[in-house]
Amino acid sequence: MGTEEGWCLLLYLALSGVVADPAERQWRAVDVVLDCFLVEEGRQRGGLASSRDMVKALLVLRQVPVLDDGSLEGFTDFQGGTLAKDNPPVTFEASVNLVQIPQAEALLHADCNGKEVTCEISHYFLQATEKAAWFITNVQVSGGGPSVSMVMKTPRDAENGAVLHPTLNLPLSPHGTVQTAVELQVTTETPSLNFLLGSSASLHCGFSMAPSLELTGVEWRLRHKGNGELVYSWTRGQRQAKREGATLESEQLLVAGDASLTLPSLTLKDEGAYICLITTSLYQAQQIIQFHVQASPKVRLILENKTLPATLICNVAGYYPLDMTVMWTREEPGGAPVPVSGASFSSLRQSPAGTYSISSFLTAEPGPAGTTYTCQVTHSSLEQPLRASAQIPPPEEKTAFGVLFASSLFLLALLFLGLQRRQGKCLLALSPAPVPPHLRISRL
């Protein structure tokens, strides 16, 4: 078993509670090594980086404190001498003594958790008098993991006899790495969020900065369909909420480095990409959170007419976003559900709030007693599909009912005629008999 496989096994055992009790976890400083790409200072300054501008790089976050769950047994720190001799990657050794990296554990365990880490390093251009170079690193863990942006500083002055990097023109350490220090980091735990319409949401944005820096501003902006607008700003203690009800806790902001934004009573207008921009006395860094508002559909199944063939109507109302599927199934007693085709749909309807509604129509074929039709609705806001079912009476029940109904009408008609005839005889018996002409008395 290789070193990496053995370490992942230890991590699995630790997470399963086999190696260490969570109460016994202790902090331990380890090196976090990330495969990155360096966007070189392009020939077209200010333009988009092409594949030719990107070279392989390595980022080593030196001695980052993480909680040891028992999986770090036998874990070794980065050794610069292990780099390839031919075409080695540009290696940045970054000290984190000045900041906190709260997402270091997620970065460290990404491989063992089956997740990928994307890391891109680019130049951070800063107007400053001191002889230094700055870089900004953006790290993202796949599968909804955390995202971290770090501003790193490295001196340009080389010590006597120091070797310079051939393209960066920066001094190299004895084992061939560019030494830097992280002075600002901005992170979010979840770069993509889904919340239900009408609920409240908290958008996480945390930061940590070197003691020499001062926090001067926090800004939240919303970008949606090409339009941008200010949501909330904090500038040296002055607050401005453009979105009604938006809040940011100043105490958490200044003490804990928490710039999270709270939005109550969500509407569809709150959907979009939120940008959390942290401004210090020297640097700026940001995080982008894709925010999605959802509304769960309501499903109702109606039997339109009971004469054969019956028509079923599945009304799906009040859902958002637009993507939604309707599937019909037919199930006879003792059998499995079978998909049914041939359904039609009404035109799409949209409410003033922005949610959608639609109806699906299906002609139900008759079957044995207990035959059930089901309308199943799938939507991104639902953990499980919604279902509505109805039973269609078998044809024989319909026929028997019709014969019984017709027979009853026939018997009622006969009874009515019999009563009419009997009443007629009674009337004849009670009426006076006519007087013969020869018995009539004429009056003079």
From TrEMBL:
SMART domains: IG, IGc1. It is found in: Cell membrane; Endoplasmic reticulum membrane; Golgi apparatus membrane; Microsome membrane. One of its GO terms (biological process) is negative regulation of antigen processing and presentation of peptide antigen via MHC class I. The keyword Membrane applies. It holds the Pfam family V-set. One of its GO terms (molecular function) is MHC class I protein complex binding. Keywords: Cell membrane, Disulfide bond, Endoplasmic reticulum, Golgi apparatus, Immunity, Immunoglobulin domain, Membrane, Microsome, Repeat, Signal, Transmembrane, Transmembrane helix. SUPFAM superfamilies: Immunoglobulin. Residues 1-20 form the signal peptide. Residues 174-290, 297-387 form the Ig-like domain. The chain crosses the membrane at residues 400-419. It is a single-pass type I membrane protein. The keyword Cell membrane applies. InterPro entries: Ig-like_dom, Ig-like_dom_sf, Ig-like_fold, Ig/MHC_CS, Ig_C1-set, Ig_sub, Ig_V-set, Immune_Resp_Modulators. GO terms for cellular component: endoplasmic reticulum membrane; Golgi membrane; plasma membrane. PANTHER family: TAPASIN (PTHR23411). Interacts with peptide-free HLA-A*02-B2M complexes or those loaded with low affinity peptides, likely facilitating peptide exchange onto higher affinity peptides. Interacts with MR1 in a ligand-independent way; this interaction may stabilize MR1 pool and facilitate ligand loading and dissociation. This is Tapasin-related protein. The lineage of its organism: Eukaryota, Metazoa, Chordata, Craniata, Vertebrata. The gene is TAPBPL.
